[in-house]
Design goal:
- By secondary structure, the protein is α+β, with helices and mostly antiparallel strands.
- A four-stranded antiparallel sheet has the order 1-20-19-18, with no helix packed on it. A four-stranded antiparallel sheet has the order 2-3-4-5.
- The chain is built from four helices and 20 strands.
- The protein is 36% helix and 34% strand.
- β18 and β19 form a beta hairpin.
């Protein structure tokens, strides 16, 4: 009996023990699961952070590789340039060595050297004397001693044509005709009988359209004694002389060394700028072999032959135009945005006026830019093209006599 009652008790105790163990096991499992979930969440966050950093590093690596490829490309170009320059230097060195070897075998005697030096000295003296004679001839023939003192007033005559252009009067005695060139390239010019006729809204008599044999280029044209002198389009340095009356070519010339860069950096379409003053016909251009400075050449108005050429110290950079008075070049400067024009450099062929000793001359207050500036030696006025406005500046001159100044 006791054994029979003990078995149920044992079974009950065993069941309670198993239940307790199962309860404890469930609590531990839940704890482990929660722990694992937290760890997995932390690992997931770290993986996401790692992925973000990987993407950032990948992008930086790509950018760095692109930059390196650019440097390598530039380096390749530089290497090619250096190689080309080294090859050029090697060729020059080889040439110099050959020339030195030739000279060593051909060195003249001391007597020959002395004779050559004497001959060279004679030639230099002859050249200097020739220059002085030409300057003296130019001055004596015209007896010109006028210099610019100031630019006094401004008059807007009209507004017509393009932004760029040129207009002026024929400076020859007895002529009142006005000529207009609109734009930077065309094969016609307009002729008005007088300044009054040009200024009127309805021109009476009507304007005359002159058809030219070839197109002109830039804004550097002049009419002098009834002949038009202009830069022929599509040529680097050809100047045509055309009879305005019938539109036929009378003569032409090629100006040596001209036409390789614009005469004024602020007027990039003009390569030759012709001008007239009391001494006659001139042409202004810029020479790249002379640091881009301006060069003035005196031309014979009949044959277009070059009488003499002067290299000036006036730069073409930031220049918008220039004109001559009695053989003195006055260069007008501005900014590429348009501002108040000033004369900051001059060159006198007679060497009586010096740029460093002359003050800056200001134009009247009008903040703009000029595409052409022409001096009229009889009227003592500047005819300018000012962003489509045809304007006249009255200039004041003075007598330039070195003996009086001293």
């Amino acid at each position: 009996m006791m054994l029979g009652r003990g078995v149920p008790v044992l079974l009950l105790s065993l069941y309670m023990t198993v239940g307790s163990v199962q309860s404890q096991g469930s609590s531990q499992d839940a704890f482990i699961i929660q722990y694992l979930e937290r760890r997995l969440s932390q690992m997931e966050e770290r993986l996401n952070l790692c992925e973000q950093k990987t993407v950032s590093v990948t992008q930086k690596t790509y950018d760095l590789s692109s930059e390196i490829r650019g440097y390598l490309s530039t380096l390749s170009v530089l290497r090619s340039e250096v190689k080309s320059q080294v090859d050029s230097v090697a060729v020059r060195v080889d040439r110099v060595e050959r020339e030195l070897e030739y000279l060593e075998n051909k060195i003249p005697s001391q007597t020959d050297i002395e004779m050559e030096e004497a001959l060279l000295e004679q030639q230099l003296k002859a050249a200097e004397l020739d220059q002085l004679k030409k300057k003296a001839t130019i001055r004596v023939e015209h007896d010109c001693n006028t210099a610019l003192n100031q630019i006094k007033s401004l008059k807007i005559v009209k507004k017509t044509g393009d932004t760029y252009g040129s207009w002026f009067k024929d400076p020859s005695e007895g002529s009142a005709k006005v000529y207009l060139f609109s734009g930077i390239r065309n094969d016609t010019l307009l002729e008005y009988v007088s300044l009054h006729s040009f200024a009127e809204r309805t021109t009476t008599p009507p304007v005359r359209v002159v058809q030219l044999p070839s197109s002109w280029q830039g804004t550097g044209h002049v009419v002098y004694n009834g002949f038009l002198y202009y830069h022929k389009a599509d040529t680097p340095n050809q100047i045509l002389k055309v009879d305005v009356l019938n539109g036929t070519v009378v003569d032409s010339t090629l100006l040596p060394g001209a036409g390789r860069l614009p005469v004024y950096s602020l007027n990039p379409n003009t390569y030759l700028d012709l001008a007239v003053d009391e001494l006659g016909l001139w042409v202004i251009h810029a020479d790249p072999e002379y640091a881009g400075n301006l060069v003035i050449t005196k031309l014979d108005k009949v044959s277009l032959a070059v009488e003499y050429t002067w290299d000036t110290q006036c730069r073409s950079r930031d220049a918008e135009g220039a004109f001559l008075i009695c053989g003195t070049l006055y260069v007008v400067y501005n900014t590429r945005y348009g501002g108040r024009s000033t004369i900051q450099c001059l060159y006198d062929i007679h060497d009586t006026i010096h740029s460093g000793e002359s003050p800056v001359i200001f134009f009247p207050k009008r903040y703009t830019s000029h595409s052409s500036i022409y001096y009229h030696p009889r009227d003592k006025q500047l005819y300018t093209w000012d962003d489509g406005y045809q304007t006249i500046y009255k200039v004041e001159t003075r007598i330039n006599d070195p003996l009086i100044e001293e």
